[in-house]
Structures are given as C-alpha cells and as structure tokens.
Amino acid sequence: MTIYTIYPSLKPKPAITYTPVKGAINYGELWRQSKERDAIIKEELKDLNYVEGQICKPYNKEGEEKYGTNIRVEKICDSYVKYGKDDWPKTGRPFLVTAYSEKTQQRFNCTVNFLVPL
Predict the structure, then answer these.
(1) Which pLDDT tens digit goes with each residue over 13-43?
(2) Is residue 2 part of a domain?
(3) Does 105 fall in a domain?
(4) Whole-model pTM?
(5) Among 103, 106, 92, residue whose Cα is nearest residue 57
(6) Is the residue at 34 inside a domain?
(7) H/E element holding 97?
(8) β partners of residue 39
(9) Which residues have a Cβ under 8 Å from the Cβ of 57 and sit 6 or more positions away?
(10) Pairwise CA distance, residues 87 & 108, whole Å
(11) 3-state secondary structure of 74
(12) Is 37 inside a domain boundary?
C-alpha cells in the first residue's frame, strides 16, 4: 500500500480583480436611495390633514385662481413603491397628492402642503 502526501503548491495564486462595468447597476445605492425616499414620503405625510375623497382648496390666491376652490383629493401616495416611474424632484418635495379641479376639469399632482381642507 502506497501513501501519498500532498504538499501545497509554492506557485503564487493569481489575484482576482474585479473592474466595474461601465453602465452597471449599483443595487446597493438603489436600495439606499429607495429607503431614503420612502422615509421622506413618510415624513411628508405627517403634515397631512385631509383624506382621499375630501374637498379642499389651495393654500394661496394663485392656486385658487388657477384651480378654483373646489378640489377633490383623489389619491395620496403613501410609499415610494407606489410613487411610480415619475422622476424624483430635485427639491426633495415629491408630488404625493393627485387631485381633481372642478374649475379646470383636470387632474393634477401637488405636494401635501398645497391643499387645505375646507
């Protein structure tokens, strides 16, 4: 019976290096960004003083002239997942409310603080 002894190789192993691919997606950065944006949306909703289906009016005269005083709140976005494919605004204040103006007969998006309940 022959017994073989295996010795480790003395040759150095080649170093494995990874070079980033141009245009590759950084999923860690996307995850961090989505969590940050979701926290911003949750913070914005703390100031909310109306619900879906409620009639509101704009907080300023310019808004009243443009949209009128009877604005129905149709939808309120409560998370970043529901925000959709719209671009995130550079100001960091997303348009979370979808409303319908009786005056213009059109839907529009606005920030949480744009409308006040009647």
Answers:
(1) 777 777 767 777 778 888 999 999 999 999 9
(2) no
(3) yes
(4) 0.71
(5) 103
(6) no
(7) strand 97-101
(8) none
(9) 63, 64, 69, 70, 71, 115, 116, 118
(10) 16
(11) strand
(12) no
